[in-house]
Structure formats: C-alpha cells, structure tokens
Design a protein that fits this description.
elongated; Beta-lactamase; alpha+beta; six-stranded mixed β-sheet
C-alpha cells in the first residue's frame, strides 16, 4: 500500500507560477493601457476617422485692364447619396429617376444605378451639375420622387473667352488648366497654384465599415482660405488678334505649329503670347485623351534650332571684340572648307555674293560670311569658341529666362570648355545650327539689343491680389552704344533686302529684325540612320515702335513645307517676316502706345 504524498510544496509552486504569470499579464496590460494607451487610441482613431478636403474658391485671372476675365470659378454641384438607410425599392426608383433626369445612357447610366442601389453609406453619383439641374433635384427631394441625395458645392474652373481659332479658349497654353482635384496644370495655373488655390476646407468624419463617412459625424477642422486674384500683363484684345494671325499663318503654311510673342523690351511685360494650334481649357480631358502635346507651350517649353536669327549674336560678339564693324569687308565665297578640308559649310544658295560689308552679310543672311567672322573672333578655334559661347550666355541662352509660367526649358548650348568645338561647330553656331533655344529666350535676348543693353525678365503677372509683383532685374549686358548699333543693324536688314522691305516696313513705324530658316534633322528616319526632313523651321525676331523700339515680336513657324525647293529659296505662302508685320501693326494699333518721349494721353509739343 502506497503512503500519502504531501502536495503542499507543489501547490505552492503552482500558485507562485500563476502569480508570476498574472503579474506579467497585469504588467503587460498596464503597458498597453498606460504607456501605449495614447498611441493605440490614436491608431484606432486613424482606422475609424477619415479626413475630407474640398478646394476653396480659386482666384480669378484678369487681363492687364483688371476687368476682362481670363479664368474664373463658377458654382457647380457634386451629387452624393446615402443609399444604406433606404429600401431597395426606393433606391431603384431614385436611380431610375436620376438616369432620366440627367439624360444618361449606356455605361454612365449603369454606373449610377449600381452606386445608388449599393449598401454604401456615401457615394458620389455625379459632378459638375449646374444650377438648373440642381433645382430639379431639390424639387424631386421635396416631392418625394427622389430620396437619400444631397448636393455639395463644387467650384469648377472655367475659361469664358473664345480663342482665336476654333475649339479653343483665349490664352489656353499660357494659362493652363485646373484638374478635377483643384490642382493647376501647366502655365499660370500651375506656376501660381498656391496663390490661386488658397487653403482648402478640411473636415473629419467617423468612417463606417466601407470607409464612408457616418452621417452626422462630420466636424469642420478648417473653413479654408479663398485664393487670390491675378492680374496679367496680357492685353485680351491683342491676344485674340495674335491667335487669329497665327492660325491664318499656320493654315496657309501647313505648319506643325506657329508661335508668337509680343513683349515690352524694357520691362519684360508680355502683351500677347500664343501658339496655333491651341485647345479648349474647358474640355481639357478630351485633349488629354486625344493629343496631350497641345498642353505644352512651345514659346517657353519647346526648343528648336533657330537658324540665322543667331547671326545677330555673332555680330554682337564681333562688334564687342573689335574684330569687325558694320563696314568691314567680308568675302562671301559661297562655300568654306574647314577642319583641314574635312568639313564644309555653304550659303543656302551655294553661290557667293563676293565681297560685302558685314552689315550686308547679316542682311542677306550669308552663312559663309558669318562663319568667317566667328572664326576671326580670336587666334584659335578654342578661343573664338569661348568668345561666341560667352556672348550666347550673356544674352541668356542656355539658362531659363525666369518667366513666371510652369515648364520653362533652358535650351541646349554645348560648352566648348567641356567638349572642345571643331571649326565646323564654331561655324554652324555662328548661324544658329547645333544649338537649341526657345522663342522666349530669343525675345529676351533681342530686347537687350534694342533697349539700351539691359537683359529683362519676361513676365506675365503684374499683381497678386492688390500687391504688384516685384520682378527681378538682371542688369546690363552691353553698353547703350552697342545696343544702338545692334538696333541699327536690324533696321539695315529690313531697309536693304528688297523682299523684306516690301513685306515689313509700314509708314509711321520704326521696324527692324532678322529672319532665320533652319533644316530639321530626323534621327529616326532612314532606318535609324537619320535624314533631313522636307519641312523647315522659320523665324523672325524684330522690333517695332514710334520714335524708338517699343515692342519686341518673335514669330516661329515650325515644320512648315515650302511651296518649292531650290537653292537658297524656300518660300512660304505667309513668310515669317510678313506675319511679323501683321502682328506688329495689330499690336501698335491695339495697344495705342504713345510715341517716344510722350506719356499716354499727352500730345506732341
């Protein structure tokens, strides 16, 4: 018979073990409740709380008069529903009534019915409803034919003025647009998003199992701050005329695009800036699906080889370095062998005009003459390249101008101190090949050539709210005497070449400028070997004024097909310099700028 076993020690050990485990559990519970309690509560709130934001009313954009509206926000409504408390029959009846009321068919009708008959606590049934539709919905809620619906205010961005071409709004590429989330895209809308948008309205709500806000749980955290208005330097009347002129030129020349800029060379204020083809800012979604490249503003965001308008830069480099004057005789031989016979540059017609004064080399746009002047800038290709490149950089090429719109491109300028240029590189650069610039860079550089030598900062916003914009100044890049010499050279171009003279000069106006024509290389052509396109880029940059240059006008016709092709002759139906004249006369008449020495409203002594 077995004896009795005393288990008191075992019981004690078990009790001690339970006590230890209990203390650990209590300690662990205390840790989660006391030490981590606030964190857990915050995590729980995150899981059951949602933040809701609505854009505040966006600021209005005006033209320079402060009265013409270019962009504004109008009241629209978002239609929402809370189907869950409703019976299925009520949901179905409401869905069918809405489909009829909103004239929906096909997939949109199916989507609305699916959302309205769901078991969700909050669904969006429609956006952008105008006031007449909103009134009809309110009437349906009042008489009981509709149920479980609500209308939420949702401002919608609108561009009220028609542009100068079909299916476009005024200054579309300059302004940009605002997407469904209230965020500006491209142009002014993107660049001044913070100022225009203000601060959004913010609210919190308790979320249900679907992540929808529980009715009655909404708590406003911030009422938001409305956006401020902008007043632009754009003249709405001139902008419309500019767009019409560009469309006419683009259609006549079968061009890929035609761009134009009208700018004050002294202040940098832009009176008009446009490209054809443009788009309708009120229907940006359709453009995004069809051709989103329309959103890009070629004036500031798209580079191209400018061609002979760059001969003015070569002239400036030669004048400043004392290696050439307007009267210096230069032999235009028609062709020039370079790099010990390995390379060659030619005049467009491959026929030399003989010995000419340098001002005629520029006027008749002789490539060989410009190349010889560039090579003669210094005693070596290396030093001459450095001088020409520095002139480009002083004029603002290769860097952004600072224009106050989104997406400005800096251009492409090969630095000869990083990768040395050959003679042919230097020669090509002298007449605008092998470089890539934007029209706004050209307008800015030419401004310094005619305004006394100061490089302006181009800009389109004059004031934000009631505060004028402080535009930074870049300072002097050439002497006033040199600027006067460059202005005279541009005038010489138009007064010397018969076809320029006949198609540009206008009685009562001072005019000057330079043309440019450039071939376009297609790297993908010829099975990836590359080839020259059969279209060309045409440019004209010039000034116009009464008594002195008052406006700079830059015209760019991209990828236009000439009427005929012969050596040195690539005619268009509407030449770049003829389009310049149209824009120049429009601008001088519309802006009604007083002659030099007079203020607006004064009369000549």
């Amino acid at each position: 018979m077995m004896g009795r076993t005393d288990s008191r020690l075992r019981h004690l050990a078990i009790l001690v073990a339970f006590a230890v485990v209990g203390l650990c559990l209590v300690g662990r519970l205390a840790f989660w409740q006391v030490v981590r309690g606030a964190d857990l509560a915050a995590d729980a709130r995150k899981e059951t709380t949602i933040n809701l934001t609505d854009p505040s009313r966006r600021g209005t954009v005006y033209d320079r008069s402060g009265t013409v509206v270019l962009a504004t926000s109008v009241d629209r409504y978002r239609l929402v529903a809370s189907p869950r408390p409703l019976s299925l029959a009520t949901r179905q009846r409401t869905a069918q009534t809405l489909v009829t009321m909103l004239s929906l068919t096909g997939q949109p009708a199916v989507e609305l019915a699916t959302r309205m008959t769901s078991d969700r606590g909050y669904v969006v049934l429609g956006r952008g409803l105008d006031e007449p539709v909103a009134r009809e919905i309110r009437a349906g809620l009042a008489d009981g034919t509709l149920a479980g619906l609500a209308l939420e205010a949702e401002p919608e961005r609108r561009y009220p003025l028609a542009g100068g071409s079909p299916d476009s709004t005024l200054a579309a590429q300059l302004l940009g647009f605002v997407n469904r989330e209230g965020v500006g895209q491209y142009g002014i809308e993107e660049r001044y998003q913070k100022e225009l948008a203000g601060q959004p309205k913010v609210a919190q709500a308790v979320a249900d199992g679907y992540g929808d806000p529980v009715p009655g749980s909404l708590v406003v955290q911030s009422a938001g701050v409305p956006g401020v208005d902008l007043r632009l330097s754009i003249d709405a009347s001139l902008q419309l005329q500019l767009e019409q002129e560009l469309m006419a030129g683009g259609l006549a020349d079968s061009a890929l695009s035609v761009s134009g800029v009208v700018m004050d060379p002294y202040t940098g204020e832009i009176y008009g800036e446009a490209t054809y083809p443009s788009y309708d800012g009120n229907d940006y979604a359709a453009i995004a699906a069809k051709d989103p490249r329309r959103f890009i503003d070629p004036v500031v965001s798209s580079v191209y080889e400018p061609g002979s308008v760059f001969k003015m830069c070569t002239a400036l480099a030669g004048f400043e370095n004392g290696t050439v004057t307007p009267d210096t005789r230069v032999n235009d031989s028609g062709t020039l062998s370079l790099d010990h016979g390995e390379s060659r540059v030619n005049d467009a017609d491959k026929r030399g005009m003989g010995v000419l004064p340098f001002e005629d080399i520029v006027a008749y746009s002789r490539n060989v003459g410009a190349a010889k002047v560039a090579i003669a800038l210094a005693d070596s290709t290396r030093n001459a390249s450095a001088i020409l490149h520095k002139t480009w950089m002083d004029l603002g090429f290769g860097t952004r101008t600072g224009i106050d719109v989104a997406g400005e491109a800096p251009g492409i300028m090969r630095d000869p101190t990083i990768r040395p240029w050959s003679q042919v590189d230097l020669a090509n650069g002298s007449f605008g090949q092998g470089v890539a610039v934007t029209p706004i860079q050209l307008a800015t550089a030419y401004s310094a050539m005619v305004n006394g030598g100061t490089l302006p900062t181009p800009h389109v916003v004059l004031s934000i709210g009631n505060q004028p914009v402080d535009v930074p100044q870049k300072g002097r890049i050439m002497s006033a005497e040199m600027s006067a010499q460059m202005t005279e050279l541009m005038s010489h171009v138009l007064h010397t070449v018969p076809w320029y003279k006949a198609n540009t000069l206008t009685p009562g106006l001072q005019m000057g400028g330079k043309t440019g024509t450039a071939q376009i290389w297609d790297a993908k052509a010829n099975h990836g070997k590359g080839a020259w396109k059969k279209t060309y880029n045409y440019s004209f940059i010039g000034y116009v004024g009464k008594g002195r240059p008052q406006l700079i006008i830059a015209i760019t016709i991209r990828e236009a097909k000439p009427n005929s092709v012969s050596q040195g002759n690539l005619p268009l139906n509407v030449e770049s310099y003829a389009l310049y004249r149209r824009v120049a006369t429009d601008a001088m008449a519309t802006l009604d700028l007083p002659p030099a020495g007079q203020t607006a409203g004064s009369t000549a002594p």
